Amino acid sequence: MERDRLRRPREPARLRPARLRQPRPVGSEGGAVSAGHSPRTGAGRAPDVFERGGWVTMREYGDDEPVDFAIVGAGAGGATLACKLAEAGFSVVVLEAGPFWRPLEDFASDEEAQQQLYWLDERLSGGADALALGGNNSGWGVGGSTVHFSMISLRFRPDWFQSRSRLGYGVDWPITYEELAPYYDEAERALAVSGPVRYPWGPPRRRYPYREHEMNAAGLVLARGAENMGIPWASVPLATVSAPRGKSPPCVYRGFCNFGCATNAKQSALIVWIPRALAAGAEVRDLAMAGRIELGQDGRAQGIHYRRGDQWRFQRARNVVVSGYAIETPRLLLNSACNRFPHGLANGSGLVGTHLTTHAGPGMWARFDEEIRWYKGPPNMAVCEHWNYTDTGKDFHGGYAFMSQGPLPRAWAQLLVTEKNLWGAALRREMRDYNHMAGLVAVAETEPRACNRVELADVRDRHGLPVAHVTFAYSDNDRRMQDHARRFMGAMLEAAGGHDVWTSDDTSHILGTCRMGSDRATSVVNADGRSWDVPNLWICDGSLFPTAGGVNPSLTIQALACRMGARIRTLAARGEL
Ligand SMILES: Cc1cc2nc3c(=O)[nH]c(=O)nc-3n(C[C@H](O)[C@H](O)[C@H](O)COP(=O)(O)OP(=O)(O)OC[C@H]3O[C@@H](n4cnc5c(N)ncnc54)[C@H](O)[C@@H]3O)c2cc1C
Ligand code: SF4
Predict the structure, then answer these.
(1) What is the pLDDT of residues 428-438, one digit of tens each?
(2) I need a surface site. Which of 27, 480, 494, 514 has the fewest CB within 10 A?
(3) Greatest Cα pair distance in the chain
(4) In terms of pTM, does the model score above 0.85?
(5) Which parts of 453-553 fold into alpha helices (H)?
């Protein structure tokens, strides 16, 4: 039976009447656009993310001035590409639905208040294994989900780019690891990733730019278990600096990473790519919600209708890039249906929104006699990729990594309530064990399947736009992989000396809803992220992933964006834009 869930926005839903089938492109409309925030960019300036109350100068463009690139979304994909394109000399405007955060003022050690960093607007979730949609998957504001991400910066296993031809499952990407490798290097340098001298998995590679962080006690539990089982483990390559870098002081191991780093040690898109983009002449318009991409008679995108303040406005552009996250990107394309593409813009293949993948995140938890204090340090400091690189002894296709954990008290209590149904005295009793707990959570690849998808719902958001309806169900292979991960991680916790082992369910990282490919019949965009159907429409975010791989995706998203920036520069030089 289908389990439909309506996630509530941060304010009571103010749904538009059903007769408003399309956003009004121009003019004003009542209702709050920003849920308590006011735009911060404009008047020739944007916040200085490194200085309390400070500003940097920002170039601005008129709505009627066609910019070379209008980019929707300032997250891992959008911010990186904005930087690369602005540095290549293109005029760039970024439209970001959420606020331009000031890390030193807006990020606080308050788990409740920091929920504001997540995309909490309405989304519907259904299917046999309906995904929980909220803080566990996407962000809102300049920097996107990288503002509150856990900073894990791992590369894909090279074979995954040809998983069908080399490993017999999934689908091949239109690019190889070798093509992406220089851009992985570039992204790791830009993010000053702190990692081990020798990472035990994957091809030989250069040293990480910064030395690895000292391991916390939660990570040492994984290390002890792995060593007792005779398999390798490693310190997680993290995008938070282990020594000063420019205006970033080193990580202070407070552990508030998933709610925004008030120290500015975290190398998020907000503090890495955005300042570079601004310095190179890009404009970032915050609290600017894109509602529809306009297609001209010539079959090319003309620009974007977006709402800022009470106004619907229209930004003209020679090229449009959609980087809104793997739910909002297909949603915007579907909301941009027109005569030529009645089923969604650039959807000649019928694949926009389909083949959604996620990472299954089964967790195993155990009590230890000694104090662990797992909240100290970034939440995931030790990793095991054994099952990403071992192809024998599996009863499933694909791979998974798993990491040590460090949930903060509210998040841990929430897990105990939802997964163990604890309440009242029983919950208090279990919370007293908080400092003695350790756990492992997998990042487990799920199969790309057409039935898992994003569609439009009848429900409308506070802008009057149809919201996304996400449908998801695990395949048998997905389930076998999770069972395997549970067995293996449970054995590792016991090998490390843990007892009272129990398990939980979760997912993270939604990907793959506008897949890239070599054939227009089986993909939405080509290897450059360029739409097969609309030549000046591009996609640059996790929607591109044909398969999910068994590691966290943001480094690959940023590497792909760096590659797209370079490719666009080459195409422009050849007159092929
Ligand atoms: C709690 C948490 C921890 C995570 N930890 C890790 C980790 O350790 N390592 C890792 O690799 N990944 C991690 N991730 C995932 C990672 O952050 C995302 O996969 C990645 O940021 C996605 O990049 P993106 O460009 O697709 O979207 P995002 O970074 O989410 O950016 C999308 C942006 O587009 C904006 N937007 C959307 N629609 C519109 C619109 N219509 N108009 C204007 N703007 C719009 C959004 O507000 C958002 O800012 C984590 C995610 C979460 C939630
Ligand atoms: S632990 Fe480090 S990265 Fe995380 S919030 Fe604190 S300073 Fe920032």
Answers:
(1) 999 999 999 99
(2) 27
(3) 70
(4) yes
(5) 476-495
